[in-house]
Design brief:
With 478 residues, the chain is of the alpha/beta class. The chain has helices at 2-14, 54-60, 103-107, 156-163, 214-228, 249-257, 316-322, 361-381, 403-407, 441-445, 458-469, and strands spanning 24-32, 35-42, 65-66, 75-76, 79-80, 92-93, 120-126, 129-131, 135-137, 153-155, 174-175, 178-179, 182-189, 233-238, 261-264, 272-275, 283-289, 295-301, 303-308, 310-312, 349-351, 391-393, 414-421, 424-431, 451-453.
Length: 478
Amino acid sequence: SICIEGPKMVDVYRHPNIEIFAYSEVIDVKGYIGNFQVTIHQDSRGFDEGFAGLNQAVAACPVKVPDEHNYGLTERTAIIEPYPGVYPQLPAIDWDHCTLCGACAEAVNHAGIQLQNQPETHEVTVGAIVIATGFRPYEPRPGEFGYRELPQVLTLPQLERLLAADGPTGGRLSWLGKPVRRIAMIHCVGSRQIDGIHEPQEDGQVNDYCSRVCCTATLRTANEIRERFPDTEVFDFYQDIRTYGRGHEEYYERASKNRVLFLRYLGEEPPEVTKTEHDTYPIVVKVKDRLTNGEEIEVPVDMVALAVGMMPSPIDDLIKLLKVAPGKDRFLLEAHPKLRPVETNVPGIILAGTAQGPMNIQESSAAGSAAAGKALALLARGAIQLEPFVAHVDPVLCQGSGACVQVCPYEGAIQLQTVVEDGQEVQRAVVTPADCKGCGICVGACPNGAIDVLGWTLEQYEAMLDALVMDIPVPEEA
């Protein structure tokens, strides 16, 4: 995809109306629709523009950590190298792992390297916020299908890196120094999990949703293997084939023509992956195949690829900052699945792509276009029409107790401010209408009865209650 993304990134980086904050994170958000104040923490990269000694610096660095770009198949140093096509083409120091030993600087005679993080803080004011935080592949537990216990068990993203021309093996289908002659691919790892059978996540929930893209991705990879390495046998273990996207059924038909062997299992009877003393193949996959009426089949293979599902990126800090709501599946919830599919319940905060849920590329692109359209429509108005039913404070009755501020669930909706009355400074509650949702919690908390929701005063409520319990005289019969 870099052939498409590369030019796009260059265009975005050079656009006069787009400001990029690379190597950064959002640490604070305040305000409301049309007037968000966002605080951005930006680490320094540690390298000067045009730095030419990258190879020497990387070779000298003694730190070794798993390389995220290759999903841990290889190691990298504490110097993050730009991959082909990324923009800007400038390395960065991984400050979380750098030991500041100075070996990289010495290798280039201290030219162009600053071994001191000099972070900057940026304050920006924006009218809308788009959350496009993506997803992360499900990480199988140690021992799940032999993962991390058997070195021949990899995830599908790891296998795809092996097949890539710039991957650890240069595109060759080999592992542990040997060519892969037989490979088993297991679907629905980390998706469509069942309570009581699969181990729950840290929050006690299982991933009972379908990740939507795993079947197509698995079949695409199976076809690539069969077409590039025709001597390699591919065995596909699946619950259901869900290639629902436009043209995606062709992957399944092509895999059948490519002689990929399919075996079907039930969700409550997943395949077992174990080590074997087989002279030819190191591991075996056992399954009750429902295509042969539950016959128990053992398939010895060189490698197992787990088609892991999607999980949301770890953005708990952003969820707290932006006051957006995650669903049971931990992905972010939209305001309404049909009428407001890319908006959150917080006005001005919009969702894009797999931050909202599992999507394929077409759906992510459509969601991104929808989010851009919503943001454009919002900014083009010039003014926002607010809901009329918000809290209102009577300054005569308010004594500044702060009880309303303590119970308000919306940060910044009501605050205590210092005002001058009769020559004295006093505390009074002030409502920010753009942040207030009119829930009325502050009305009941105020000890002085100084707060009403516009259109619904306390006197009106009391009158309604009196009417409900009043005695109605029964007319006498004539």
